[in-house]
Amino acid sequence: MKKIIFLLLIIPIQLYAVDKNPIEFANVEQEERFSNLINELRCVVCQNQSVADSNAELAQDVRDLVRNKILEGQTDLQITDFLVDRYGDFVLYNPPLKSKTYVLWFGPLVLVLLAFIVFIYIIRSHAQSTPSTLTDKERNIIKQVLMRSR
Question: How do residues 95-146 score in pLDDT, each as one tens digit?
């Protein structure tokens, strides 16, 4: 019994969202479009989960909305445009490159460059603060300390 409990603690259990309103599509193409769209859309409540993976009520509403719009005959672009108008570019995992999303696209690059510049500055200031050559007296002191440590 202890082994079973131990295995259950070690084995990762993944939970998937369950669609509460499953509706059969007329063809496989519609089903694939639905699957692709809900995997490309971000749940605005969970923020780091796709609509397909989220159990939030809003994610269920978005899944229903996408399903209904596909059944109405709307294109993927029309559906994503509708959701972007409603929730903003944040609803897309890959937001378009425009002035509002520059921070999303270039923010990480700017932070890495800034960290690199600070790193180089610290290295240079440390290299300039240490003496480049030792005097004979300092060498003798270092030799004596090293001899004592043996």
Answer: 888 888 888 789 999 999 999 999 999 988 877 766 668 888 988 998 899 8
120 and 80 fall within a common domain: no
**Do both 20 and 83 map to the same domain?**
yes
Cα distance between residue 115 and residue 112, in whole Å: 5
Residues 52 and 119 in one domain: no
Could you tell me if 145 and 83 lie in one domain? no
Q: What is the domain-level CATH number for residue 82?
A: 1.10.8.640
Query: In the chain, what is the greatest distance between 2 CA atoms, to the nearest angstrom?
Result: 90
| pLDDT above 60 for 92 | yes
Phi-psi label, residue 92: left if phi above 0, alpha if psi -120 to 50, beta otherwise: beta
**Residue-number span of the structural domain to which 117 is assigned:** 100-149
Distance between CA atoms of residues 132 and 31, nearest Å = 70
Place of tokens 């769209």: 37
pLDDT in tens, 1-16: 666 665 556 665 544 4
Side chain identity at residue 71, one-letter code: L
pLDDT tens across 7-59, in order? 556 665 544 455 556 667 778 898 899 989 999 998 888 877 888 888 888 88
